[in-house]
Design a protein that fits this description.
The protein is of the alpha+beta class. It has a domain at about 40-120: Carboxypeptidase-like, regulatory domain (Immunoglobulin-like). The chain has one helix and eight strands, in the order αββββββββ. The protein has one helix at about 1-20; strands at about 40-45, 55-60, 65-70, 75-85, 90-95, 100, 105, 115-120. Strands 2, 3, 5, 6 and 7 form a five-stranded antiparallel beta sheet that branches. A three-stranded mixed beta sheet has the order 4-1-8, with no helix packed on it. Strand 5 (about 90-95) and strand 6 form a beta hairpin. It is elongated, with a radius of gyration of 23 Å. The protein starts with a helix and ends with a strand.
Length: about 120
């Protein structure tokens, strides 16, 4: 009788472990439930709407003045996840010696995902 109870307990433990292992892992960039952070995405383009690979995007936290950078790939895209919704951010791009206008991600903008195109005049 004791062996049957122990075997049943082990079987339940194995089933529970299998269920936990089979649960899908959270995907990068997706906010889990209860997460109220924001995502900033966009592209760095020249005046002819062509992507500028290897441009550097600068994101500044207006409260702490901390700066994060992102080097864009061949398609000109950039991505800054997990931004705090109660903080303003300033973003601009630089390519060689040229710079885009500075844009603001406002704390009063309640969108969970913000997309900003940064244009640089390379001439």
């Amino acid at each position: 009788m004791k062996k049957a109870i122990v075997a049943t307990g082990l079987l339940l433990l194995l089933l529970l472990s299998a269920l936990v292992m089979a649960a899908p892992a959270p995907q990068f960039g997706r906010a889990p439930k209860g997460d109220n952070t924001r995502l900033l995405t966009g592209k760095v383009l020249d005046r002819g709407d062509n992507p500028l690979p290897n441009a550097v995007v600068y994101l500044t936290n207006s409260r702490t003045r901390a700066v994060k950078t992102y080097i864009v790939g061949t398609d000109g895209s950039y991505r800054f996840p997990a931004l705090q919704p109660s903080i303003d951010y300033e973003v601009y791009a630089q390519f060689q010696s040229h710079k885009s206008d500075t844009k603001t991600v406002s704390q009063f903008d309640d969108r969970q995902q913000v997309s900003i195109i940064l244009k640089i005049d390379t001439k």
